[in-house]
Queue: 2 jobs
Job 1
Amino acid sequence: MDRIIKVIFSTGILTLFYFIWTGTTDLYNILIIAFIALVISIIYNRSLFKPMLSPKKWIYSIWYVIFLFIEIIKANFDVARRVVSPKIPINPGIVTVKTKLKSAMGRMILANSITLTPGTLTVDIDEDILYIHWIDVTNIDEKTATEKIVANFEKYLEVIFG
Amino acid sequence: MIKRLIPLLLVISLFFILLKVATNVAPNYDLTGVAKTYAEQGASDLGAMNLVTAIVVTYRGLDTLGEVTVLFMAGTGIALLLRRKKKKNDSGIKNRAASEILKTGSKLLVPIITMFGAYIFINGHLSPGGGFQGGAAIASAVMLMFLADSSFKINHKVFVLIESFSGIFYVLIGVLGLVILGADNFLDNRILPLGTFGTILSAGTIPLIYTLVGLKVGTELASILDNMKGELE
Amino acid sequence: MANLPEILLQISTYFVSAGIILATLRLIIGPSMADRVVALDTFTVISISLITLIACMSERVIFLDVGMVYAILSFIGVVAVARYLEGGL
Amino acid sequence: MEWYRILGSIITLIGSIFLFLGALGVFRMPDLYNRMQAGTKATTLGTILTLLGIGICHYEWIGQILVIIMFIALTNPISSHALARAAHFKGIPLTKGSVADKLKEKESTEVEVD
């Protein structure tokens, strides 16, 4: 039963993706594509598309995207400042942080967000420990780094993927 | 010195190419000879919005069949050359597992890339692309699975089945043209109604043929990848 | 003033082209293999923007399909090189 | 006056400047990881803004543009993560003056699995 719900949801997502891509209004087109999406979802049984039903998660997702976009813009001004200045001001190093997230999807989104935000780049991941290249290390202590790097994201991601 | 000079020349020439691209982007409108005939009559004759597809599948359909066969031969040849006895892995080098992020990401991306491959060959008669390109996109999805999971194996029986059946159906559609429309109509796309110009169910058999070609090319390229990976291990 | 958008897009094309040239320089001088791959990654991502700009300037939507395929191939290419470098293939 | 075209082309211009800065970062930064930082962040935002601007100019293309943006925003960090991981495993050093490298301890004890 669980599997059937997953397949149907995956089919829906893939059809939606096709619909956004082509913007078609032809019914035959959508039916054919829905069939193909169904076949793909059945064949590929490791798909991670899961139904997300509670409206709270949706609201948090939208907030998260906005928050992330602001962070990315900040990150870019940070990078631009460093790149343009004649004597490149960096103080790099690799530090560890701990995450509380359990789901694989949540961890991936967290790692991607860390990569896209100011001065940090996920180098490796090992269960709940992330190894992060930090362009301007202020403190190599794990607790402080966690507080500075991941705490902001986890607030949202814990609700979305919790 | 010369070693440094050649890349420098390359960069300079790249600069000029980019400059040309950046300064004048204008489509070429003049056509001559056989291209003119195809361009003028193709759309009304065959009902395909993408003229290249119409030429590849109908006017030059036999060539496409040949190309698919060549790809099949190449795949078979690679399998023949690379399928040696599996060497014992005694060098002490083991595969490093992919990171968790890449695994999760590939699980998310593989269906989307496969879907995009399907889009390419389903819409072969409306937009750029077609069977070969769609097949390549599907094979790249399979490659992503290989990259994310070093112990991933493809199911050979299913792949061979899909490949053979799509080939057989392709030839059957061609022969149907001979039977229904008479001689010298091999691979004619008009055995099905042409439909409304510009919709997905148009251009006769072109979408059908491209689906078959896409499946065939996709499975063939995936098998080639599998053989090469077997050699690396 | 009427063709201000065209002029702005033209200037963007120059910036993007300059970016591609810088990435190519790093591709040539990069001391290690991984440096070259980083440069190549940057190069391809910037090229996607160039393809889209060309699509906009020549008013042809089909280049967007090309851009998407290029995005897929560049991603898989970089991941393949990375997995090869760490001996994971 | 087609105001949306002007808005779109200004956004595109900003995006292309970020792309240029990203490439400049890749060119100027001292070691691989710092280059990757500049490369990934700046090219991701640059591509997003460039494509978004063109999507505003040609609003009938917005669907396709959005799909490409989603794909880039998802794949770009993943590919640079994979590359950074491989490079560190391969032993490419951090630049002089780096503060800490906690990953080294983990990799030396890493049990290689098939």
Note: The two ends of chain A are 22 Å apart (CA to CA).
Job 2
Amino acid sequence: MNLEMLMQDPALWGLGIATLAFAMLAVSVKNLVHAVLWLGMSLLGTAALFAKFDASFLAAIQVLLYVGGVVVLLIFGVMLTREHDNLAAFRTTRRPVRAALVAIALFVGLVHAILNTPGLGDPSAGKLVSMPDLGMSLLGPYAFAFEVLSLLLLAAMVGAVVLARKRDPGQPSAKKLIRHRNLGRQVVEGLAATDEVGQ
Amino acid sequence: MNARHPGPTSDRYRLEQMDADADLMVLNFGPQHPSTHGVFRIKLILDGEVVVRAIPYAGYLHRGVEKLLERLTFAQGVPIVDKNDYVAPMTNEQALVMAFEKLLKIEVPRRARWMRTIFAELQRIASHMLWLGTFALDMGGALGGGSGVFIYTFRERDYILDLFEMVTGGRFHYNTHTIGGNRHDIPPGWDREVTKVLDLIESRLPEYEAMSSNNAIFVARTKGVGVIDKELALGLGLTGPILRASGVDFDLRRDAPYHAYDELKVNVATATAGDCQARAQVRVAELRDSIRLVRQGLAGLPEGGINGGKPIKMPQQFKTMTGQAYVGIDTPRGELGTFVVAGGGDKGTAPYRCKIRAPSLHALSALPWILPGHTVSDVVVILGSLDPIMGEVDR
Amino acid sequence: MQGLLRGLVYGGLIITVLMTATAWGMWLERKLAARMQSRIGPNVVGKFGLLQPVADLMKLLQKEEIYPIGADRLLFDLAPFLVTTFAIATAAVVPFSAEAVGADLDVGLLWVLALGGLMVIPVWMAGWASNNKFALIGGMRAVAQSISYGVPLVLTSLVAVVFTGTMSLSGIVKFQIEHGWLALWPPGPGVVAFVLFYMALLAESNRIPFDIPEAESELVAGITTEYTGMKFGLLYVGEYVHTMVGSAIAAVIFLGGWDGPFHIASGLHWMVIKTVALFASVYWVRWSLLRFRSDQLMRLCWLYLVPVSLGLVVFAALWRHFVLR
Amino acid sequence: MGYLLDSIRALGVTAKNIGRKPVTVQFPKVIRERQERYRTSFALLKDEQGEERCVGCLACERICPSQIIHMSSTKKESPVTGKKRGYLDDFTLDMTACIFCELCVQVCPFDAIVMLKVPHEPGYVREDLVLTMAKLYENAEKPLTWGNGTKLMEMQEPPKPAPAQAAAPVPAPAAAPVPAAVPVPAAAPAPAPVPVPASAAAAEPAKTEAP
């Protein structure tokens, strides 16, 4: 256990506190867009922590997938919602006691799992997993799991495409264009009778 | 609040009634916008980036030219129309002066008519050069390849302005036409300069085409975009290159010759697609034909006087109480008509009414028809392909 | 502590050098663009207008800060700062020579791609926070474009990774010193991969013909419409730094980095020459081409660039397996 | 692929233009050579005896479409010729609204007002743009443009029948075929078309046809 040594590292403290603060902000601000932003910052902080522990691959993946991917997805989600600046509208239930219980249980569980992890605190642990090793193990012993996961993701992707297509048939269809064009004609015919067009 | 003016509170065009299943957004495109070719506003109603409706608003550049023409006498009126179509100013003068001449029954000498032809065609070259540049600018941006084409065409257009400066002394506000002919004769050696400039432009045209109208990106942006079919073009009274690009073989220079076009053969370029690419092709073809026409005009320029009437000495020089006249000429943008009714001013020294039929105004009237279904990017391209000049639209 | 100090010193150095290089990169671009258009370009401030970037900076610093009504102030302020930060952070792992490298990460390439993908967030923030419809459309276009072109960018870099068997940027260069530049070797696919990477780079850094997020003839100025003063300057600089760093990375991955016939300062000059040449070529392209429409951009990406780069990855894997083993 | 090839062609064009000389003229340092007839700003002239040419006949004030010329004059005995003639008391020309139509120059019977070949200097206040009489006489020192009333009128006068016929050779019309149906009015240049009624031909302020 080298926890004491880690505890004395000010950079670690700073990063940890910043990450936590961003996480707190993410769940407490009223503005949905800000919430997504703080979540992204919190994830960045996590990535920085990974980098601090020399797990640079994990850090890069964290940034690439979580900040670059998930947050952007969330942004798209936010853009599709109507009320951006009033998150209170979404909080229909407020049960702080139960929420706190769940959070504490999760926290205890996580701490327990972390403290029981073998090799914790060994500064060289991150170095052990080199890039080639990682690649070899992904495509060697864990190839099956890897492929199954890929298949799952593919299925999800296909499903998403199918779902999206159902609502709006793909490319701007001729039908839609014609509808728009006819609307244009109607407007012009209407304009013949009016000068001012209100909205 | 009547049927004709329902006012802004009318629910006739309420946004929520426009398209039930779409999130619509109103985008005020202009009047301050880099590619509205002046001050022009289109209210775009967007579904995502696709235009659902487009409502154009003109009038931001209104200067009351038609009213001014009623107040000024025939002799004074000519210089002020220079500012209508500020890309081809001489054609404005020509249209107005020809209508006045028709009304006052003044005949123009042959040399003056040939000179007017040469001027008109040079203006067409200058105008189409500017159009090509601004059209590329619409597509390539002021911070991109578009500005390259723009500056190249502007560079060569400036040489044409130099030519006009040699004749008239002005680069922009020429006032070189007068009722009955021209005010300035061609100075000696002018034809050599013209030939030099035309050779330069002709040799560099392939360069602009490589960067714009022959470029695959240009084709991708213009092909099938903003299609104006024959019926729509005829129904809206579109003229000039837009009409010719829609497959109507009509050109006033050939079909109702004026100036010296009865002695020169005009090759009318047409296309059938009616899209932005067709309009571009027609204009580029016209550019080449105009170069040829100027050369022929210079070769056949007759000697003689340049003014059939008396030179202007006082404002009340020309007067008539009766009659009306309409003259339409083919400017780079289409039929520029002037309808003038005699009998205004002090004892008929001014027009009672002077109506200018601006081709750009008619071109813009196509916007609500052709914009819906296109994206915001296409709006810019379509507007550019119509080549509107706001000075002429609003007058 | 020593590591921290080294990081600070090198970080400061890289920021200084990069910003200076970018400033005079702008000058170079303006001069180049002017000459392409039969103009003179900046020539008033200093000899040959060389002090123009300084003058621009002074001007931007003096300008009034304007917040549009209804703007999201937090995001509005944060966005330019983040754009520049991410752009510069990418440079930390770029090996400018065998010695001059900030952090020679195992996963250098991954880091570069991750941060490049991150650029989209502040750009979107800028578009969103401006409370301007043109800016919003620009921001949305930026997101869509950046995500789409991230795919060929990653795939073409993957070609290099498969060939070299390493994700470390200096490792890639060392491999190229041994085997030859990836843009030239293996003949054919290498060039294609380079061209695709270059195109994706143009799109990622929002340069013509892929500059639809800014598209000043359509969207006034896209995301920068409402920005003034130094915040506008930072957005602007961020884009240029992004392009500069992107050029450096392209030089590293495909043009052999610091490899070259003569070695001064362990090949640093080769890296500088290659980077500046690529940087200038980006602007040569910029001032020569027209712009695509957004849907054409997407079609080009998903129908041509992505399949071709996927094919290149397969080719690289086969080559690696059968030829290089 | 087409995109790529065309893009390379476009790149070639810009590369070609790098080699061309810049056409920019750095205005205040370098002044473009102006054509002989180039016209801006105004000047009032004095004749050889140093007498003001302008007699205050109001011709230019009346013709100006923008109505920017204002003058007042009194009749005095000329110190040179001893005859009574008008002298300007005041003359202003408001450049803020001038459209440079050259009509005032054309109508001046004494060639008193002419235009300059060098542009008017920009001013800091609007008053700088109003040309007072003093400024107009000062401007006479600057390079003048080609045109004055006499020359412009001469150029526009319909050619006198006799000398014009002798001087003007009839050039062949352009090679283009002439549409047969279209009547060609006045194909020969010789008899100058004088549609103005004969009575008006001689009168100085031309009274044109009054139907």
Note: The mean pLDDT of chain D is 73.
